[in-house]
Design goal:
The complex is a heterodimer of chains A (329) and B (332). Chain A has 329 residues and is an alpha/beta fold. Helix content of chain A is 33%, strand content 22%. In chain B, the strands form two sheets. Chain B has an eight-stranded mixed beta sheet with strand order 6-7-8-3-9-10-12-11, with helices on both faces. A four-stranded antiparallel beta sheet of chain B has the order 2-1-4-5. Classes of the chains: A alpha/beta (329), B alpha/beta (332). Bound molecules: adenosine-5'-triphosphate (2 copies), iron/sulfur cluster and magnesium ion (2 copies).
Chain lengths: 329, 332
C-alpha cells in the first residue's frame, strides 16, 4: 500500500459555452492519502460540490467534465465510462450529498433502503443485508437499531437522519467517503456529535474522507489537510496546521479574519473583503479584492506554488504577512 | 439598574394546538413554543437570543412584536402593555418596531422594484408621500451601502447580501426604536456576514436603535450582543452580559453549546475535540415537572427531576436556571 489512495489531476467542470461559460471547477488537482481527512472549503458558488461531482463523474448535462488523470488505489480511472465508474461509486467510494432528504427515499423505510444497498452492491441475501444494516447503524452510534431500521426518514430527527446517511455510506466498507456539507443544516450540538463520530470512524476503520464545508471551524476540528477554493480554483492547499498558522493566500487570510470568534471577546469591527470583481479577467483571479495586489498581479496569473512541503498557494506574495499586514478595518 | 427597559416580556407563553393524537386519546396536542419567557431589553442595546432549532426563538420574537398572540403573560413596550392596545394603538406602536427575516428573498415582493419596496414602508406609515419619497429611499439605500442605481431593480437582481441590505433599508425606513433580527445573516457567506454585522453596529451607534438579535450562531451572537439570553424549550435558562456569559457560562446547556462550536484554530497538538453534549434535540411537546434540561444534563441529580430551578442571580446581572450553577462557577 504505497502512494495516495486517490490522485486527481486537472479536473475541469463547466456550464455553457464561449463568453457566457461558467467554469465551475478549473484544473483541480489533489491527492488523498490513506486514512486522511481532506476538507474542501470555500464560499457559496466556489465550486465545492462540482469538484466532487466531477471527481465521481456525476456532473449532469448541460455541465461538462474533463479530467487529466484520476487514479484510485493504483487503478487508472481516467478513461472510464459511466458503467465502469458506477462499479467504483457506492462500493469503494461512497458519497453523502448536500441534502439528506434528496438522497433518502421518503417512501421506503431505512431498513428497506439498507437491504437494497446490501443486495445490490454486495450481493447479500435479504437477511444478511438486514444484519449488515443493523451493524452499520451501531457503528455510527445509533441505539435501538432494530427500531430505526423500521422507521421512515421523516420520522427521524436531522441528526439521526445524518447518521443514517453515514451508515448507508459505510455498508460496503468503502475506502473513501465523500461528504458534501453534511452538517450545515444541523444544530451545533448535533454537528459536534457527527464530527466526533467521523473522526472516530477514521481512526477505527482507516477510512479516507473528503469533507466539503464552508465553515473554517469545522475544517479545524476535522481536517488533516485543506483545499481552499475561490471561484472554481484551488487557491491554497496544505496541512491544516500550516494553513491556519502560516496562511499562504490573502483570500484564506481574509476568510479567517472575517469570522467572529466564539472564544474571543469582540475587538472592533470585523475585517471585510473589499467589494470588487469576483474574478479578474486576467492576472490573478482575486486581485480586484486583494489588499496586497501589486503590478505583477495584474500582469500574470500566479501558479499554485509550493511554500513548504505539502503547502501550496496561488499568490505572488505568500510571505507577505511576515512583512507586516495592512491594518484591519 | 435604574434605567427603564424598552421591552419587558413577562412570563410569556405561546402554545400552539396541533390537533389530536391518534389511538383514541382525546387530549389536544400542544407545542409549547414559548413557555414562561421573561426578558428585559434596554434601549440602545443588542440582546442576543440563542438556542437550538425549535426552542422558540422566532416565536418569541414574533410575540414581542405581537405578530402572534400570547397564550399567557404580557409584553410591555416602552411602558405600554401591547395586549391592552386596540388596533389603532397597535398600528401606532408598529411604526416603532420592525423585523428582518432570515430569507430576504421570501420577504421581499419579487414583482416590486426596490424603490417601491422601501418606499411603501414610508407611505404606509405616513412618513413621506409624493415626490418626497424618492430622495428618502435613496438616502436609506445609501445608509445600507447600496447605490441609488439599486432603486430601479427587482429583488432577484441582487445577491443574497444585497437583498439583506434591502430588507434592512425597509426596516429602517420608519426609523424604528426596535428591530428584531431573526437569523438575518445566517444564510450569508462569512465575508458578506461580516459586512452586514459591521453595518448593523454602525447603524446602532448612529441612531441608538435597539436590537433583538436571534441566531443559532454562538460566535456571531458574541460579536453582536451586549447581553445574551439562552433559550431551551421555550424559556430562558441563562441570561447575562455577553462577556460574563461567554467567559463563564453558569448553565450546563450554555456550557455544552459553547463547547460544541468548532473554533477556526489548529495548534501543533492537533485537532481539538468537541466536548458537546449527548442526546437529540428536545421536544417542545413534553410537559416538564422538574428542570427542562434534565434528560440531557451531565450534572443531573434527583432534585432536578422533581423541582424546576428558577432563574437566579449568579453574579450581578447574570442569571442561570440550574440547581447546580455554583458547580460551574470555577469550571472553565
Ligand atoms: N446547472 C448549472 N448551470 C450553470 N451554472 C451552474 C450549474 N450548477 C452550478 N453552476 C455554477 O457552478 C459554480 C459552482 O457551483 P457549486 O454548486 O459547485 O458551488 P458550491 O461551492 O458547492 O456552492 P454552495 O456552497 O452554495 O453549495 C457556481 O457559480 C454555480 O452558479
Ligand atoms: N404556527 C405554528 N403552529 C404550530 N407549531 C408551531 C408554529 N410556529 C412554531 N411552531 C413550533 O414551535 C416550536 C418553536 O418554533 P420556533 O420557530 O419559534 O423555533 P426557533 O427557535 O425559531 O427554531 P429555528 O432555530 O429552527 O428557527 C417548534 O417546535 C415549531 O415547530
Ligand atoms: S437543574 Fe439539574 S438538570 Fe437542570 S441544568 Fe441544573 S443540574 Fe442539570
Ligand atoms: Mg455545494
Ligand atoms: Mg427561527
Amino acid at each position: 500500500m504505497t502512494g495516495p489512495l486517490l490522485s486527481l489531476r486537472d479536473l475541469n467542470v463547466s456550464f455553457g459555452q464561449g463568453r457566457s461559460a461558467v467554469h465551475a471547477v478549473r484544473n483541480l488537482s489533489f491527492d488523498v492519502a490513506r486514512g486522511e481527512i481532506v476538507a474542501i472549503v470555500g464560499e457559496s458558488g466556489s465550486g465545492k460540490s462540482n469538484a466532487v461531482l466531477g471527481l465521481l463523474d456525476l456532473v449532469r448535462a448541460p455541465g461538462r467534465r474533463s479530467v487529466g488523470q484520476l487514479v484510485f488505489d493504483g487503478e487508472d480511472l481516467t478513461g472510464y465510462g459511466p458503467r465502469q465508474m458506477r462499479r467504483i461509486r457506492g462500493r469503494r467510494i461512497a458519497m453523502i450529498f448536500q441534502d439528506p432528504m434528496t438522497a433518502l427515499n421518503p417512501l421506503l423505510s431505512v431498513g428497506r433502503q439498507m437491504v437494497d444497498l446490501g443486495r445490490q452492491h454486495l450481493g447479500l441475501s435479504r437477511k444478511a443485508a438486514w444484519a449488515r444494516g443493523i451493524e452499520v447503524l451501531e457503528t455510527v452510534g445509533i441505539t435501538a437499531a432494530e427500531a430505526r431500521m423500521k422507521a421512515y426518514p421523516h420520522q427521524l430527527s436531522g441528526g439521526i437522519r445524518q447518521r443514517v446517511m453515514i451508515a448507508m455510506a459505510l455498508i460496503c466498507e468503502p475506502e473513501l467517503l465523500i461528504a458534501d456539507e453534511p452538517t450545515t443544516a444541523l444544530d451545533v450540538t448535533i454537528q459536534a456529535q457527527i464530527i466526533e463520530l467521523v473522526k472516530d470512524l477514521q481512526a477505527r476503520l482507516g477510512l479516507s474522507i473528503i469533507w466539503i464545508t464552508h465553515d473554517l471551524g469545522v475544517v479545524a476540528a476535522l481536517a488533516d489537510r485543506v483545499i481552499v477554493m475561490y471561484s472554481g480554483t484551488q487557491i491554497e492547499e496544505g496541512p491544516a496546521e500550516a494553513l491556519f498558522n502560516r496562511t499562504g493566500h490573502p483570500y484564506t487570510e481574509a476568510l479567517l479574519a472575517s469570522m467572529p470568534r466564539v472564544d474571543q471577546a469582540p475587538d472592533g469591527a470585523l475585517r471585510t473583503l473589499p467589494q470588487g470583481q469576483r474574478e479578474a479577467p486576467d492576472g490573478c483571479l482575486f486581485r480586484a479584492r486583494c489588499s496586497y495586489a501589486e503590478p505583477q498581479c495584474a500582469a500574470d496569473r500566479p501558479a499554485l506554488d509550493s511554500l513548504a512541503p505539502g503547502h501550496r498557494a496561488a499568490c505572488f506574495r505568500p510571505d507577505r504577512q511576515r512583512q507586516g499586514a495592512p491594518s484591519h478595518g | 439598574m435604574a434605567e427603564q427597559e424598552l421591552i419587558f416580556v413577562q412570563d410569556l407563553d405561546v402554545h400552539f394546538d396541533i390537533g389530536r393524537e391518534g389511538f383514541g386519546k382525546s387530549s389536544a396536542r400542544k407545542v409549547r413554543a414559548v413557555d414562561g419567557l421573561t426578558l428585559k431589553i434596554r434601549p440602545g442595546e443588542t440582546m442576543g437570543l440563542v438556542g437550538e432549532s425549535g426552542c422558540g426563538k422566532s416565536t418569541a420574537g414574533r410575540a414581542i412584536l405581537r405578530l402572534v398572540d400570547p397564550t399567557r403573560g404580557r409584553v410591555m413596550f416602552d411602558g405600554q402593555d401591547l395586549s391592552a392596545l386596540g388596533p389603532r394603538g397597535l398600528r401606532q406602536m408598529r411604526k416603532r418596531m420592525q423585523i428582518v427575516h432570515q430569507d430576504p428573498y421570501a420577504s421581499l415582493n419579487p414583482r416590486m422594484k426596490v424603490k417601491d419596496i422601501v418606499g411603501e414602508s414610508l407611505i404606509v406609515h405616513g412618513l413621506a408621500k409624493g415626490r418626497a419619497v424618492a430622495p428618502r429611499v435613496a438616502a436609506l439605500l445609501e445608509t445600507v451601502g447600496l447605490g441609488t442605481e439599486a432603486m430601479e431593480r427587482y429583488p432577484h437582481e441582487f445577491s443574497g447580501g444585497q437583498r439583506q441590505r434591502v430588507g434592512i433599508a425597509r426596516a429602517l425606513a420608519v426609523e424604528p426604536d426596535f428591530i428584531v433580527l431573526d437569523e438575518s445573516i445566517s444564510a450569508l457567506d462569512v465575508s458578506i456576514q461580516a459586512q452586514i454585522i459591521n453595518l448593523l453596529k454602525d447603524l446602532q451607534r448612529d441612531t441608538g436603535v435597539t436590537y433583538l438579535f436571534i441566531s443559532h450562531d454562538m460566535a456571531v451572537v458574541r460579536h453582536m450582543s451586549d447581553r445574551v439570553a439562552v433559550m431551551y424549550l421555550g424559556a430562558v435558562v441563562e441570561m447575562g452580559p455577553s462577556e460574563s456569559l461567554y467567559a463563564s457560562p453558569r448553565h450546563p446547556y450554555t456550557r455544552a453549546l459553547l463547547k460544541s462550536v468548532p473554533v477556526p484554530q489548529v495548534t501543533a497538538a492537533g485537532k481539538p475535540t468537541l466536548e458537546g453534549i449527548k442526546g437529540e434535540l428536545a421536544s417542545p411537546m413534553e410537559v416538564h415537572k422538574g428542570c427542562r434540561f434534565c434528560n440531557r444534563c451531565p450534572l443531573v441529580q434527583d432534585i432536578c427531576r422533581q423541582s424546576p430551578p428558577t432563574l437566579d442571580v449568579v453574579t450581578p446581572g447574570h442569571f442561570a436556571a440550574c440547581h447546580f450553577s455554583d458547580r460551574l462557577a470555577t469550571a472553565a
